[in-house]
Amino acid sequence: MRHWLRRLSMAVGALSALGLSAPAMAESATDERLVVAGGCATEIVYALGAGDRVVAVDSTSAWPPEARDLPRIGYVRALPVEGILSMEPDRLLAVAEAGPSTAIDKLRAAMPVDVLPPLRDPRALPDQVRRVAAHLDLEARGKTLADALEARLAEIPAGVDTDAAPSVLILLAAGGNQLLAGGANSSAHALLDALGLRNAAAELESFKPMSRESLLQIDADLIVIAETAPGAFDPAAWPALAHTPAGKADRVLVRDAMYLLGFGPRVIDAMQELRAAVLDPNFTAWKRS
After folding, report:
1. Residue 135 belongs to what H/E stretch?
2. Residue 135: pLDDT above 90?
3. CB proximity list for 65: less than 8 A, separation 6 or greater
4. pTM exceeds cut of 0.70
5. In whole angstroms, what is the distance from residue 182 CA to residue 162 CA?
């Protein structure tokens, strides 16, 4: 009982951090055992105050911090059927990227499986919140949270008041001393597009490996390193970065990949930070956060 109350208190705190109040928690609790596959979905579930239902998450679900203490079911694109069933869940909530399809089909035969549609635009986050809330029978909470997120998004301009939109290069660091540039039709491009910023790697398609030689040829006003895990980016392996225009000006950000590109509720903070960084001529940073 004390454990349940502690989890409930954490959920209330998460809602309060988003500007929501206690009435959003008024809907009844449930004993449903929920497995969540996908960091964005996990963040939304907790923001809805339903973290007490979650019994296991995938490896991309590292936020909020209490989700890190839950059992892991592996990578979202390689879900283990037996491992998930061993958690005795009542329902699986998964993002569109979850798979493989054969695993999803087998899990559907054992329990309800709710697969969310792709979220390709961070400004569409409120609609995704409403969908998750509907799957969890938390429509009232979902409306409260979605309305709050919409209000915050409305405060972020969709463009910049400059003659030429600043250019940003987003590099995904997944370990192994490799960086992937976020090109067209990637979450990186969608994030920049939502802010009216130019993608310095727009000529590429999706995420493509970036060579050190190619990096030196890119003139970006800001470079953002999106780490899939703390320490996934090793500056010592990329001395070329310091010789780029952004590197020479110390205009390099190192941030958590899910914070930037997962398009969960935290993406609004990421959008505000990215816009402020790229528009402030005096902004300098080269640090992990």
Report:
1. helix 125-135
2. yes
3. none
4. yes
5. 24
Nearest of 260, 212, 218 to residue 240 by alpha carbon: 212
Q: How far apart are CA 106 and CA 101, in angstroms?
A: 9
CA of residue 98 relative to chain centroid, distance? 15
Tens of pLDDT, residues 227-282: 999 999 999 999 999 999 999 999 999 999 999 999 999 999 999 999 999 988 88
pLDDT computed for residue 287 by the predictor: 53
Angle among Cα 5, 6, 11 to the nearest 5 degrees reads 95
What is the C-alpha to C-alpha distance for residues 218 and 238, in angstroms, rounded to an integer?
14
Say yes or no to pLDDT of 134 above 80: yes
- Which residue type sits at 96? A
Q: Cβ neighbours of residue 225 under 8 Å, at least 6 residues apart?
A: 171, 173, 179, 233, 252, 253, 254, 255
